[in-house]
Amino acid sequence: MGTQTVQTRRFSRQDYERLVAEGFFHPEERLELVDGELIMMTPQGSRHATAVCLAEGALRSLFGAGFSVRVQLPIALDPDSEPEPDLAVVTGSPRDYRDAHPQTAVLIVEVTDTALPYDRERKARLYAKAGIPEYWIVNLLEGCLEIYRHPAIVSSPGAAYQSHSVASSSDTISPLAAPERSLAVADLLP
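^ thats the sequence. predicted structure below, dont judge the formating
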């Protein structure tokens, strides 16, 4: 008896967008495309939803005209990835993305309470590979903000952030794209 090989089907962003447009997925199904794989996103608990709302308000006040804060919307990072981060701050206005999703962001924020290793490892690699200059994780488990900056291509795991720090609820932070402004980390935590 021979061994059986498990086969997987990888998707390009173009394949994925076509399936979405054709209504292939159930409207309530929360999916994102990461490195050619369809990832089922976990349902949001109330703490997660509250933190997303708080972060949205804080980022909208922090970034003014010339920036748009997108909440749980696609970002077309590369031919095989179209994640839907909790928040992405992009340049321009919402109408600039009427015909196509943005391909980059000045800041991406993920709120996590159940997927911390995934956000720290796979998502950080994905965003670093795409050259996203700054990535924050609102860590609900530890009540802090993890800050990743300065993406670089490295031999292993392929891409990584060169700077990583942790800010507590009593700290303030200034994003790279708006260094003259700051927000209290506590404003991001439920």
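The two ends are 56 Å apart (CA to CA).
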